[in-house]
Design brief:
Number of strands: 0
Structural class: mainly alpha
Largest sheet: none
Radius of gyration: 27 Å
Amino acid sequence: MMWLGYGSGWMGIWMVLFWGGVVALIVWGIRASSTPRRDRTGSARAILEERFARGEIDRPEFEERARALEES
């Protein structure tokens, strides 16, 4: 019966690790589904249009880069 006392310590550690992992997976799942991410397959044209819409580049630069994209 003495071995039960020794093994119960390991059981507690494994239980804490298990539930910690479950909580970590839930948090990861919520964060992954709620944060917007950029489409990894987005085209260069879409990125260019996005930069123009945000005001990072002006119309002449947009048109010049759009022409360069169409040529390549």
